[in-house]
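Course exercise 7: structure representation. Students receive a sequence record and must write out the corresponding structure in token form. The form below is the worked example handed out in class, using Quinoprotein dehydrogenase-associated SoxYZ-like carrier (266 residues). Read each field label carefully; the graders check that inputs and outputs are placed in the correct fields and that the protein name is recorded exactly as given.

STUDENT ID: A-19
EXERCISE PROTEIN: Quinoprotein dehydrogenase-associated SoxYZ-like carrier
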Amino acid sequence: MRRQTALLGMILLAAPVVAAPEGARPDDPLQSPFLPTVLQLVLPEGARVRFDDRVKVQFPAIAENQRQFPVQVDARAVPGVKRIIIFADLNPIQKAVEFTPHDAEAFIAIRIKLDQRTPVRAAVEVADGSWLVAGGWIDAAGGGCSAPPVSRVKGDWAQSLMQLRGRLWSTPGQRVARLALAVRHPMDTGFVDNVPSYWLESLQLRADGRLLADLALNASVAEDPAIMLMPHLMEGESVTVRGRDSGGVELAGRVAGQSAIPAGAP
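STUDENT ANSWER:
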């Protein structure tokens, strides 16, 4: 028995220590050597960061279309959420969207572009000013940020630029509703020859004059941005949407008419 114990000790001492990749934060679950630099780009200077699995970042296991990759962030289990940022470490434009839920749940679903295999993450600012980060790796064929938008290829984007479509769902007696928005926009990254960057850069949502949410978008959001949020609404309230793109074109619209939330919705 003593010989076996001594032998086991020798094996343990000889076992190699697996170190984090050079440059990676040792506490990063995804072990990305790029994260320290990316955090400096997408978060405020000096931001305090920790990893927290209460932030649920969900997306498909396979990126079937790197131009339209759906990402859902659910931070409702975290108290005092102030902001949510969605970003991809290895995209040329890392930050996709910054969402401020003034009078809404800490939940957002959106589609982004992917330029290569990369971690896709969310950073959630909480009441004390620190940030909680979570995410996962996704394999992608690449080119999502450098391929021309479909509307550019068809040449029909200008006829319906900034056109808003939306729908509301709610449950009687409950304040939490579901809001789906889609805005017609090419979301040009500037990485296509002879096509300058041009994107929808902001959306603001109100109900009866009350501020529900602010969104700041970047060109790494997918063409014709499609967004799902969970605002707090009273029965019969509608949502007023205002926006602006990087060329100064403005959007103004209203989403009204609430139907029942589908069974099984998160």
